[in-house]
Amino acid sequence: MTRKEHVATNEKVTVWGMGTIRSLRVYWTLEELGIKYDSFPVHPRSGQTYEPEFLKLNPRHKVPVLKHNGMVITESAAIIEYLSEAFALPEGFFAPQSTTDRVRLREWSFFVMSELDAHTLYVIRRHVHLKHLYGEAHTAVCAAEAYFHDQLDAVASSVGRHGPYLLGDQFSTADVLLTSCLDWAAEYGLAVPQPFYDYHLRCVSRPAYLRALKTTFPDSPPPDMTPKMRSGKWDPSTSVYSGTKP
Ligand SMILES: N[C@@H](CCC(=O)N[C@@H](CS)C(=O)NCC(=O)O)C(=O)O
Predict the structure, then answer these.
(1) Is CATH 1.20.1050.10 the classification given to domain 99-206+221-241?
(2) pLDDT single digits (tens) 81-109
């Protein structure tokens, strides 16, 4: 075990959230790190997130939420970063040792959270699956899909180049974020370049992922969590597909 700033506490971690890809990120990290936790099966838009007790935790009525040591954290990426900084890390889990390491980790994490989660997948979710709440926006959805493919193509040659995971041989919280977005893309039928397809298979075969999947989706996981591979010939030297754009 490597450890950095380990938080000395007897307080158990508590998680609120279930049935969503963003909650999966938290359970997956907890499982990777072997942290014991209690969880409340709060589902989004079920009414539970509007109950007064929950609104005290997160006035933005969203899951996941994590509480530890009296501190409440309400953003999935911040939650998993906290866990990886506050708790001992198992062998093989990326622990930044320098500013350069840390910025590499954050660069991937911010890329995934802004360009893939917020700007693309969540736009599709809001304006297709939740259009009764957020309104229909066909043009925005088409643009989000095109942008998703554009962003993946642009970084595809970096995936798998330095090792099995984004930062090389060691698995990191950035891998949790990216894999969860690829799971999410699969749900929407978005095909991905081959490096992402291979990378996704590697990450989802981790035992901690499989345990987290059962916790997050106790009845059954969404039917399609494996992205399709984009057809066409991939040229890793130019990051260009010879096939037609999806
Ligand atoms: N940026 C936040 C987004 C959280 C979020 O939007 N959660 C959704 C479920 S995945 C939710 O709770 N929605 C309920 C609502 O909007 O009322 C994160 O990554 O944690």
Answers:
(1) yes
(2) 999 999 999 999 999 999 999 999 999 99
